[in-house]
């Protein structure tokens, strides 16, 4: 009986250790990120930037599908930008993500959502794939008329099917109904501005 207890205890320890070792090697499988922009298109404020890298885990290109919302939760622009393995994509908030708003109104603050995908399709269809990592700078108003830039990692978020479908549908409508507006542009990879 003692041998059985020892064998079972040893088996349990091995399973627990093996499971925790396996969990440590999994890595971050995030596919959905959010950030904000503020004081954009504002005189005297520095341009904000979203930077993304492809960690190379998939061995192929990934696309960053961008969805840019104003502070009234209305989609203003969307697009998909390619990021090659170990590549760097730097997007200017002012000149790439806010330059062609669907409504034609200037957007000073709002939300940027990014989906990591193996397909481009302008943001209207995403095949989810982990591998993008990113940061965003934010123009913070300081004393007087001065601004300072802060930089934070993009926030990992949970992408549920309803949110993915809504983002893709809004983007599709913007492209179809916008007559050329509502589509953001992409900086060529490895080109900073």
Describe the structure.
- It is a single chain.
- With 193 residues, this protein is α+β, with helices and mostly antiparallel strands.
- The radius of gyration is 21 Å and the shape is globular.
- 23% of the residues lie in helices and 32% in strands.
- Mean pLDDT is 86; it is low at 1-25.
- Strands 4-3-6-1-9 form a five-stranded antiparallel beta sheet, with helices on one face. It has a four-stranded antiparallel beta sheet with strand order 5-2-7-8.
- The protein has one domain: TM1070-like (Hypothetical Protein Tm1070, Chain: A), CATH 2.60.290.11.
Helix-strand layout with pairing:
Elements: H1 2-24, E1 32-37, E2 49-54, E3 62-70, E4 75-83, E5 88-92, H2 93-97, E6 110-117, E7 132-141, E8 147-153, E9 155-156, H3 161-177
Antiparallel strand pairs: 1-6, 1-9, 2-5, 2-7, 3-4, 3-6, 7-8
Give a short account of the largest sheet: 5 strands, antiparallel
CATH structural fold name: Hypothetical Protein Tm1070, Chain: A
* SSE topology string: HEEEEEHEEEEH
What is the count of helical runs?
A: 3
Percentage of residues in DSSP E strands: 25-35%
Distance separating the two termini: 72 Å
Helix content: 10-25%
CATH class: Mainly Beta
Strand order of the largest sheet: 4-3-6-1-9
Q: Which overall shape is indicated by the principal axes computed on the Cα atoms?
A: globular
Number of domains: 1
Class by alpha and beta content: alpha+beta
CATH architecture, please? Sandwich
Could you tell me the number of beta strands? Answer: 9
Mean pLDDT: 86
Q: Any idea what the radius of gyration is?
A: 21 Å
Uncertain regions: pLDDT < 50 for 5+ in a row? 1-25
